[in-house]
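Title: Prediction job returns without error message
Component: structure pipeline
Severity: low
Priority: P3
Assignee: unassigned

Description:
Job completed but the reporter wants confirmation the result is attached to the right record. Sequence as submitted:
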Amino acid sequence: MKCIILSDIHGSYDDLKKVIDVFETEKMDKIILLGDLLYHGPRNPLPISYNPQKVAQLLNQYKDKIIAVRGNCDAEVDQMVLDFPMRADYLEIFLDGHRFFITHGHLYNEELLPLINEGDVFMYGHFHKPIAKKTNGIYIFNPSSISLPKEGVKSFGIYENHELKIVSLEKKLIKKINL
């Protein structure tokens, strides 16, 4: 199973298009969305290619490949234009024998972990910072943001063969961790 993982799109169409191109080129299986899909929220600047309608249309083309959770900037009205569910605060998925707890990060994060076990993967967004590490036996993964990173590099994640990677939109490796 090969998955692309992204968070905090915040309505940035051009950045999403670049990631979808990677998804297509590398023939990936699933798209995992960690919330804040369409809108930028009152605390964030407007992304350069801000176009929530086009973002929704592009994502809807992949509705059968998307696993998504709600972010703090996502609202009920967003679900009305999206053809895949994204209203859950968290989901658990199992890939290659690993349990992944996926959430946005505004309810659960490194400071407030959910009830998960050693060896599990805690995957979240919200903070717009790339993180790939193991702490107290739990894998912690945050792909950062493809539109509004706080550390200067727009990035997303890739999961394949028991490895999580964070790569820039230019496809340069930022961080990785083996599960």
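Comment from assignee: result matches the submitted record. The radius of gyration is 15 Å.
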